[in-house]
Amino acid sequence: MSELIRKVIRDQEEFEKRRASRLGSGAERLTAPFGGLIARIIPPAVVRHALRQADMAAGLTVPREVTAHDLNDITACDRVALRVQAWAQGTNAATGGAAGWFGAAGLAVDVPATIALAARNVRATGAAYGFVKDDESERVFRLMVLEVATSMASDRRQETLDSLNGLARELARPEARIILEQGGRWVTEKVVERITRQLGISLASRKAGQIVPIVGGAVGATVNASFQADVARAARYAYRQRWLIERKALPAPDAPMAEGA
Protein backbone atom coordinates (compact mmCIF):
# COMPACT_ATOMS: atom_id res chain seq x y z
CA MET A 1 0.00 0.00 0.00
CA SER A 2 1.41 3.39 -1.01
CA GLU A 3 2.04 6.13 1.53
CA LEU A 4 -0.59 8.29 -0.21
CA ILE A 5 -3.29 5.66 0.28
CA ARG A 6 -2.23 5.21 3.90
CA LYS A 7 -2.63 8.95 4.40
CA VAL A 8 -6.10 8.86 2.82
CA ILE A 9 -7.12 6.07 5.19
CA ARG A 10 -5.78 8.03 8.17
CA ASP A 11 -7.82 11.03 7.03
CA GLN A 12 -10.89 8.81 6.88
CA GLU A 13 -10.27 7.62 10.41
CA GLU A 14 -9.90 11.23 11.58
CA PHE A 15 -13.29 12.09 10.12
CA GLU A 16 -14.87 9.19 12.02
CA LYS A 17 -13.65 10.78 15.26
CA ARG A 18 -14.63 14.34 14.31
CA ARG A 19 -17.79 16.07 15.45
CA ALA A 20 -19.76 18.84 13.72
CA SER A 21 -17.98 22.01 12.61
CA ARG A 22 -17.37 24.52 15.41
CA LEU A 23 -19.46 27.19 13.71
CA GLY A 24 -22.36 24.80 13.27
CA SER A 25 -22.19 23.52 16.84
CA GLY A 26 -21.89 27.02 18.25
CA ALA A 27 -24.81 28.31 16.24
CA GLU A 28 -26.99 25.40 17.30
CA ARG A 29 -26.21 25.98 21.00
CA LEU A 30 -27.02 29.68 20.74
CA THR A 31 -30.25 29.20 18.82
CA ALA A 32 -31.53 25.99 20.48
CA PRO A 33 -34.20 27.83 22.55
CA PHE A 34 -35.89 28.92 19.30
CA GLY A 35 -35.66 25.52 17.62
CA GLY A 36 -39.24 24.54 18.44
CA LEU A 37 -40.59 27.69 16.82
CA ILE A 38 -38.60 27.17 13.64
CA ALA A 39 -39.57 23.50 13.52
CA ARG A 40 -43.19 24.64 13.16
CA ILE A 41 -42.18 27.00 10.35
CA ILE A 42 -40.36 24.13 8.59
CA PRO A 43 -42.93 21.28 8.51
CA PRO A 44 -41.72 17.77 7.58
CA ALA A 45 -43.77 17.79 4.36
CA VAL A 46 -41.86 20.85 3.12
CA VAL A 47 -38.50 19.23 3.88
CA ARG A 48 -39.57 15.95 2.27
CA HIS A 49 -40.75 17.61 -0.93
CA ALA A 50 -37.67 19.82 -1.13
CA LEU A 51 -35.40 16.83 -0.55
CA ARG A 52 -36.94 14.79 -3.36
CA GLN A 53 -37.01 17.65 -5.83
CA ALA A 54 -33.48 18.74 -4.93
CA ASP A 55 -31.99 15.30 -5.53
CA MET A 56 -33.66 15.04 -8.94
CA ALA A 57 -32.58 18.54 -9.96
CA ALA A 58 -29.02 18.13 -8.69
CA GLY A 59 -28.12 15.83 -11.57
CA LEU A 60 -28.95 18.59 -14.04
CA THR A 61 -26.74 21.20 -12.39
CA VAL A 62 -23.48 19.29 -11.83
CA PRO A 63 -20.89 20.65 -14.32
CA ARG A 64 -19.06 18.18 -16.54
CA GLU A 65 -15.66 19.47 -15.45
CA VAL A 66 -16.00 17.73 -12.07
CA THR A 67 -15.21 14.45 -13.86
CA ALA A 68 -12.61 15.81 -16.29
CA HIS A 69 -9.61 14.87 -14.12
CA ASP A 70 -7.89 11.49 -13.68
CA LEU A 71 -10.38 9.58 -11.50
CA ASN A 72 -7.63 7.18 -10.39
CA ASP A 73 -5.70 10.07 -8.85
CA ILE A 74 -7.12 10.54 -5.36
CA THR A 75 -5.32 13.86 -4.95
CA ALA A 76 -7.00 15.22 -8.08
CA CYS A 77 -10.37 13.92 -6.87
CA ASP A 78 -9.88 15.63 -3.51
CA ARG A 79 -8.90 18.88 -5.21
CA VAL A 80 -12.10 18.96 -7.26
CA ALA A 81 -14.22 17.96 -4.25
CA LEU A 82 -12.79 20.89 -2.27
CA ARG A 83 -13.78 23.23 -5.11
CA VAL A 84 -17.30 21.81 -4.90
CA GLN A 85 -17.35 22.58 -1.18
CA ALA A 86 -16.12 26.14 -1.70
CA TRP A 87 -18.85 26.79 -4.29
CA ALA A 88 -21.58 25.33 -2.07
CA GLN A 89 -20.44 27.30 0.98
CA GLY A 90 -20.15 30.58 -0.88
CA THR A 91 -23.48 30.24 -2.66
CA ASN A 92 -25.42 29.12 0.41
CA ALA A 93 -23.84 31.84 2.55
CA ALA A 94 -25.13 34.37 0.02
CA THR A 95 -28.66 32.94 0.05
CA GLY A 96 -28.67 32.80 3.85
CA GLY A 97 -27.41 36.35 4.14
CA ALA A 98 -30.09 37.65 1.78
CA ALA A 99 -32.92 35.64 3.34
CA GLY A 100 -31.88 36.61 6.86
CA TRP A 101 -32.79 40.25 6.21
CA PHE A 102 -36.44 39.21 6.11
CA GLY A 103 -36.45 37.24 9.35
CA ALA A 104 -38.81 34.26 9.62
CA ALA A 105 -40.36 35.07 6.23
CA GLY A 106 -37.00 34.54 4.55
CA LEU A 107 -36.86 30.94 5.76
CA ALA A 108 -39.54 29.98 3.24
CA VAL A 109 -37.00 30.68 0.51
CA ASP A 110 -33.78 29.84 2.31
CA VAL A 111 -34.68 26.33 3.52
CA PRO A 112 -35.46 24.89 0.04
CA ALA A 113 -32.37 26.66 -1.33
CA THR A 114 -30.20 25.16 1.41
CA ILE A 115 -31.53 21.66 0.77
CA ALA A 116 -31.09 22.05 -2.99
CA LEU A 117 -27.49 23.18 -2.57
CA ALA A 118 -26.78 20.33 -0.14
CA ALA A 119 -28.12 17.81 -2.67
CA ARG A 120 -25.95 19.31 -5.40
CA ASN A 121 -22.99 19.37 -3.01
CA VAL A 122 -23.30 15.61 -2.44
CA ARG A 123 -23.98 14.81 -6.10
CA ALA A 124 -21.02 16.86 -7.38
CA THR A 125 -18.68 15.43 -4.74
CA GLY A 126 -19.64 11.92 -5.80
CA ALA A 127 -18.92 12.82 -9.42
CA ALA A 128 -15.51 14.16 -8.39
CA TYR A 129 -14.61 10.63 -7.26
CA GLY A 130 -16.14 9.00 -10.34
CA PHE A 131 -19.56 8.00 -8.99
CA VAL A 132 -22.13 9.34 -11.42
CA LYS A 133 -24.81 6.64 -11.60
CA ASP A 134 -28.39 7.61 -10.78
CA ASP A 135 -30.34 4.54 -9.74
CA GLU A 136 -32.32 3.80 -6.57
CA SER A 137 -29.34 2.47 -4.63
CA GLU A 138 -27.31 5.58 -5.46
CA ARG A 139 -30.17 7.80 -4.33
CA VAL A 140 -30.28 5.93 -1.03
CA PHE A 141 -26.54 6.43 -0.65
CA ARG A 142 -26.79 10.18 -1.30
CA LEU A 143 -29.57 10.49 1.26
CA MET A 144 -27.48 8.62 3.81
CA VAL A 145 -24.61 11.04 3.21
CA LEU A 146 -26.96 13.87 4.20
CA GLU A 147 -27.99 11.88 7.26
CA VAL A 148 -24.36 11.60 8.34
CA ALA A 149 -23.88 15.34 7.81
CA THR A 150 -26.91 16.24 9.93
CA SER A 151 -26.09 13.80 12.73
CA MET A 152 -22.50 14.96 13.30
CA ALA A 153 -23.30 16.28 16.78
CA SER A 154 -25.88 13.65 17.78
CA ASP A 155 -25.66 10.38 19.66
CA ARG A 156 -26.59 8.55 16.43
CA ARG A 157 -23.42 9.62 14.64
CA GLN A 158 -21.66 6.26 14.86
CA GLU A 159 -24.82 4.41 13.87
CA THR A 160 -25.26 6.53 10.75
CA LEU A 161 -21.59 6.12 9.83
CA ASP A 162 -21.85 2.35 10.19
CA SER A 163 -24.93 2.27 7.94
CA LEU A 164 -23.25 4.44 5.33
CA ASN A 165 -20.11 2.31 5.30
CA GLY A 166 -22.18 -0.87 5.08
CA LEU A 167 -24.00 0.43 2.03
CA ALA A 168 -20.73 1.60 0.46
CA ARG A 169 -19.34 -1.94 0.72
CA GLU A 170 -22.54 -3.47 -0.62
CA LEU A 171 -22.58 -1.21 -3.67
CA ALA A 172 -19.19 -2.63 -4.66
CA ARG A 173 -20.79 -6.07 -5.07
CA PRO A 174 -22.78 -6.47 -8.33
CA GLU A 175 -25.12 -9.07 -6.82
CA ALA A 176 -25.88 -6.85 -3.85
CA ARG A 177 -26.66 -3.90 -6.11
CA ILE A 178 -29.28 -6.03 -7.90
CA ILE A 179 -30.93 -6.86 -4.58
CA LEU A 180 -30.90 -3.21 -3.55
CA GLU A 181 -32.46 -2.22 -6.87
CA GLN A 182 -35.27 -4.74 -6.47
CA GLY A 183 -36.22 -3.29 -3.11
CA GLY A 184 -34.94 0.19 -3.90
CA ARG A 185 -38.14 2.20 -3.73
CA TRP A 186 -39.14 0.76 -0.37
CA VAL A 187 -35.68 1.38 1.02
CA THR A 188 -35.57 4.91 -0.40
CA GLU A 189 -38.91 5.85 1.17
CA LYS A 190 -37.78 4.53 4.52
CA VAL A 191 -34.54 6.48 4.36
CA VAL A 192 -36.33 9.63 3.13
CA GLU A 193 -38.66 9.59 6.14
CA ARG A 194 -35.79 9.12 8.55
CA ILE A 195 -33.59 11.79 6.99
CA THR A 196 -36.50 14.21 6.63
CA ARG A 197 -36.92 14.19 10.39
CA GLN A 198 -33.19 14.54 11.03
CA LEU A 199 -32.72 17.27 8.43
CA GLY A 200 -35.72 19.23 9.69
CA ILE A 201 -34.44 19.15 13.27
CA SER A 202 -30.93 20.13 12.21
CA LEU A 203 -32.08 23.02 10.03
CA ALA A 204 -34.51 24.24 12.69
CA SER A 205 -31.84 24.37 15.38
CA ARG A 206 -29.25 25.94 13.09
CA LYS A 207 -31.52 28.56 11.52
CA ALA A 208 -33.36 29.79 14.59
CA GLY A 209 -31.23 32.93 14.71
CA GLN A 210 -32.58 33.99 11.30
CA ILE A 211 -35.97 34.89 12.76
CA VAL A 212 -34.56 38.31 13.78
CA PRO A 213 -34.72 40.57 10.69
CA ILE A 214 -31.46 42.19 9.47
CA VAL A 215 -29.36 40.58 12.24
CA GLY A 216 -30.50 37.22 10.86
CA GLY A 217 -28.55 37.94 7.67
CA ALA A 218 -25.21 37.43 9.40
CA VAL A 219 -26.52 34.36 11.22
CA GLY A 220 -27.96 32.91 8.02
CA ALA A 221 -24.74 33.35 6.07
CA THR A 222 -22.63 31.77 8.83
CA VAL A 223 -24.96 28.86 9.53
CA ASN A 224 -25.47 28.03 5.85
CA ALA A 225 -21.73 28.03 5.19
CA SER A 226 -21.06 25.73 8.16
CA PHE A 227 -23.90 23.41 7.15
CA GLN A 228 -22.52 23.04 3.63
CA ALA A 229 -19.07 22.39 5.11
CA ASP A 230 -20.51 19.52 7.16
CA VAL A 231 -22.29 18.16 4.06
CA ALA A 232 -19.12 18.41 1.95
CA ARG A 233 -16.97 16.68 4.57
CA ALA A 234 -19.47 13.85 4.94
CA ALA A 235 -19.67 13.48 1.15
CA ARG A 236 -15.88 13.43 0.75
CA TYR A 237 -15.63 10.78 3.45
CA ALA A 238 -18.40 8.67 1.89
CA TYR A 239 -17.13 8.73 -1.67
CA ARG A 240 -13.51 8.31 -0.60
CA GLN A 241 -14.62 5.13 1.16
CA ARG A 242 -16.14 3.85 -2.06
CA TRP A 243 -13.07 4.92 -4.06
CA LEU A 244 -10.88 2.93 -1.66
CA ILE A 245 -13.20 -0.09 -1.63
CA GLU A 246 -13.33 -0.29 -5.42
CA ARG A 247 -9.54 -0.31 -5.53
CA LYS A 248 -9.33 -3.03 -2.86
CA ALA A 249 -7.63 -0.70 -0.37
CA LEU A 250 -10.36 -1.46 2.19
CA PRO A 251 -11.75 -4.91 3.07
CA ALA A 252 -14.86 -6.29 1.37
CA PRO A 253 -17.93 -6.96 3.53
CA ASP A 254 -18.11 -10.25 5.43
CA ALA A 255 -21.88 -10.54 5.08
CA PRO A 256 -24.75 -8.81 3.24
CA MET A 257 -26.02 -5.62 4.81
CA ALA A 258 -29.29 -5.80 6.72
CA GLU A 259 -32.45 -4.83 4.84
CA GLY A 260 -33.39 -1.17 5.15
CA ALA A 261 -29.79 0.13 5.24
- Count of discrete alpha- or pi-helical segments spanning 4 or more residues: 11
Order of helices and strands: HHHHHHHHHHH
What helical percentage do the residues reach? Answer: over 70%
Mean of all residue-level pLDDT scores: 79
Please summarize the sheet with the most strands.
none
N-to-C span: 30 Å
Number of β-strand runs:
0
Model regions low in confidence, pLDDT < 50 over at least 5 residues: 253-261
Form type: globular
The fraction of residues assigned to DSSP E strands is under 5%
Radius of gyration: 18 Å
Structural class designation = mainly alpha
Account of the protein in words:
With 261 residues, the protein is mostly helical. The protein is 75% helix and 0% strand. It is built from 11 helices and no strands. It has helices at residues 3-17, 22-31, 35-41, 44-61, 74-100, 104-128, 136-150, 157-170, 174-182, 184-207, 215-246. It is globular and about 50 Å long. The protein starts with a helix and ends in a 15-residue tail after the last helix. The model is unreliable at 253-261 (pLDDT under 50).
